[in-house]
Amino acid sequence: MGLVSELFRRWPGVTRSLHPTHSVCALGPLANELLATHHLSPWACGERSPFGVMGRRKTAILGIGTEYYRSLTQVHAMEELLGDDFSVPRELEEPVRVELVDRAGEVVAYEMARPLSGRVVLKLERLHDFTSPATSTSGSSGHEPLFDYSREGDAAVRSAALRGETLYAPR
Fold it and tell me: What's the predicted TM-score (pTM) here?
């Protein structure tokens, strides 16, 4: 999100996932593993997405210049990985079907999963209710906000969701 992300996207060698709403950019030895199957998952943050891959690998997310409660997409992985076991229902509307065009110009059919119920709102600031300071921290460096979030944070959010506790609250 923002200038740093845009500069990274333009950096030589950076690749981008083929996803219509939650594309992710990566560079390095795990870039292909992170990005290769994003467009094969109906869930933007599901098992085959970069967010699902990061949850299985030893990763950490570092946010610079933005607060965690504005930009931590990773927390959506659990609601999609748990599927019907997630306590917030999905809308009944038909999935949206789109065509994606990859770097080679090939057209790829894609069907987006139904969104979560519009009767709830994400309250990401509740994350600290489920995680310890070792798995999710926030603060600032000078005047810029900072955060980091680890794989253990995913485990804590999953455990809470299985108990019926989520980051969502009624509207």
Answer: 0.78
143 CA to centre of own chain: 26
**CB-based contacts of 66: which residues, under 8 Å, 6+ apart?**
1, 2, 145, 147
Pairing outcome for strands 15-16 and 120-122:
unpaired
Predicted pLDDT at 119 = 92
Task: Report the alpha-carbon distance of residue 13 to residue 19 in Å, rounded.
Answer: 19
**How far apart, in whole angstroms, are the C-alpha atoms of residue 25 and residue 42?**
19
The closest of 73, 62, 76 to 24, measured between CA atoms, is: 73
The amino acid at 143:
H
Domain residue spans of the chain: 3-88+95-166
pLDDT tens-digit map of 89-125: 888 888 889 999 988 999 999 998 888 888 999 888 8
Which strand (E) or helix (H) includes residue 129?
helix 127-130
